Amino acid sequence: MPKPSHPRRRIRHYPPSLTPRERRKELPETIVRAAIRMDAMAGEVISLPRPARHHHIIHHIAIERGLLIQMRQGNTQGFITSAGRFVDREEAREIAFACGQVTQTISRTLTSEDLW
Hints:
Number of strands: 4
Number of helices: 5
Mean pLDDT: 81
Order of helices and strands: HEEHHEEHH
Largest sheet: 4 strands, antiparallel
Distance between the termini: 37 Å
Low-confidence stretches: none
Shape: globular
Oligomer: single chain
């Protein structure tokens, strides 16, 4: 019998009564994208799809949206989780270690370079 061309995937079976939201709650929370929370703009969170890094988001904010002045007034760099939460770099590092996304980081906080 020929071998399959793709590696075997681990398939998780859920009871049919679980909704997609309930299924996501069973999975560990992971880091899915880099983000910046604009403290000077009522906490608006701006993110770009991976593999975007924080400097890509800063470029987007400064050039595409014309918000260079607001960037200097304050912001918090962090990440968006699979649960849709914004977390700062320190909490993101804890989440990434807990779910096995990373085994080491280049600093005491999580950077996008640690992930992708």
